[in-house]
Every structure is written in C-alpha cells, then in structure tokens.
Write a structure and sequence with these properties.
Layout: H1 2-16, H2 18-38, H3 45-78, H4 83-87, H5 92-126, H6 134-158, H7 163-178, H8 192-201, H9 211-215, H10 226-248
C-alpha cells in the first residue's frame, strides 16, 4: 500500500512539472513536423514520417526519463522532503520502488500521448488504418520498455548523488547504451577487454528498437521480443542495486 501511494503521488507531481510538459509538447511538435517534411518527398511519405516520428518519440521519452528520474530521490533529499517520509513506517525500499513505479506510469502515459499523435498522423497521411499494424504497435511497446530501463538507471543515480550529476550520468549511460553495439568493433583491437566489459555493463538500448520494421513495413520477428526480457532483467538488477545503495546512504 505504501508503494502504490508513493507511486500515485509521484505520478501527480510529474504531470504537474513544467519541464515534463514542455518536453512532451516539443515531442508532439516534432511529430507534426515529421509529417510536414514527409509531404515534401513523393512516394516516401510513410518512411520519412514514421522514421522522424519514432525518432522524436525515442529522444523525448529518453530525456523525460532522465530528467524526471534523476530528480526524484535526489531532489527530495535536497529539499529535505524525504526525512518525514522515511521517519514514518515506510521502508526506504518501498519509497524507492514507489518513486520508480510513478515514474514508469508517467513515461508510459507520455508514450501513449505521443503514440496516439503519430498514429493519427500516419492514418491521415495514408487515408487508411493500414499503418496501425503489428509492427507499429510492437515498436511502441519496445520503446516503452526502453524508457523503463533509462528510468531505472536515472533513479539509481538519483539515489546515489545530486540531481545534476544524476542527470549527467544517466544521460551518458543512455547515449552509450544506444551505441553499445559499436563497441563490438573494438573487441579485436586495442582496448578490447575494456570494450567487452563496457558492452556487458551498458544497457543494449539499440536492441530495443523496432523502428526499421515500421519504416519498411515488415512484421517483427518472433525473436524480437527476447531483448524485452533482457531489458526487464537489467532494470530489475539496477533497481536492486539502487535499493542497496539507498539503504546504506547517510542523509546527514
């Protein structure tokens, strides 16, 4: 019950934050711009609109996850709002989990708003419901899982350090996670051990993307869902580590 109460408060706080609202509006604007840009290219409208639209959703969703998640715990510590909470019969693990669940709900609500906007634009462009296929819906779900991983990383750093440093570290991890597959090319050259270690430690966010299936209108393979299991396990491991660190942190 404590976890759900904290999650509900977190969701209401997040929806009232001006930064989160501004990022969401900017994402919706980018999606609209993608449709306008696609109309300038004959015969490639679906590909350009879906590519730019999904990329805008991915970028803005990641930024929302980073900046909201990095300030959840660290911000409460800076404002000393956390002290009366942990003084009550609320365990630190419950507080941390509640904060994360509230963040996750916020991210998925934002994703739903952006997904609905892009879906409507693609339907208007095609004058048909054909764009709302399994590939598009699967891409939405996979993107939502990607946001859960980034949010978990942001909450981990938020439980460890200040909001500014947490945002910097979380954003760096998110960028590196999208480039993790490029580290494989370093395995055979100098620093291969470092590259291999980083590849295992970083979240493989590039695997959590089905954008190409939407762009080229190809059904996603059955194995495409395997990265979801990996991502959920990774997020769970990061949250567990965050709980351990948070339990031992001294607020004095």
């Amino acid at each position: 019950m404590n976890v759900l109460s904290i999650a509900s408060v977190t969701l209401r706080e997040a929806l009232r934050r001006r930064l989160q609202v501004n990022l969401l509006l900017f994402a919706l604007l980018l999606i609209l711009v993608s449709l306008v840009a696609s109309s300038l290219t004959i015969g490639e409208m679906h590909r350009i609109a879906s590519d730019l639209g999904l990329s805008a959703m991915e970028l803005m969703g990641t930024l929302i996850a980073v900046f909201l998640g990095s300030s959840l715990v660290a911000g409460d510590i800076d404002r000393r709002a956390l002290y009366p909470v942990v003084a009550k019969p609320v365990r630190r693990v419950e507080y941390l989990l509640g904060r994360y669940l509230g963040l996750a709900a916020t991210l998925w609500l934002n994703l739903a708003a952006m997904a609905a906007t892009l879906g409507v634009l693609l339907v208007i462009d095609a004058w048909s419901l054909a764009p709302l296929d399994a590939a598009l819906l699967s891409a939405y779900v996979m993107m939502g899982v990607q946001f859960l991983v980034v949010g978990a990383v942001a909450v981990f750093f938020s439980a460890l350090t200040t909001p500014t440093l947490a945002a910097i570290f979380a954003l760096a991890i998110a960028i590196a996670g999208h480039m993790s597959n490029d580290l494989r090319t370093l395995w055979q050259g100098p620093g291969s051990h470092v590259a291999r270690a980083l590849w295992y430690l970083l979240p493989n966010l590039s695997a959590l993307s089905l954008n190409e299936a939407v762009i080229y209108r190809t059904p996603p393979a059955a194995s495409a869902w395997l990265p979801c299991l990996y991502a959920l396990f990774y997020a769970g491991a990061v949250l567990t580590l965050a709980a351990v660190v948070f339990e031992r942190r001294d607020f004095k």
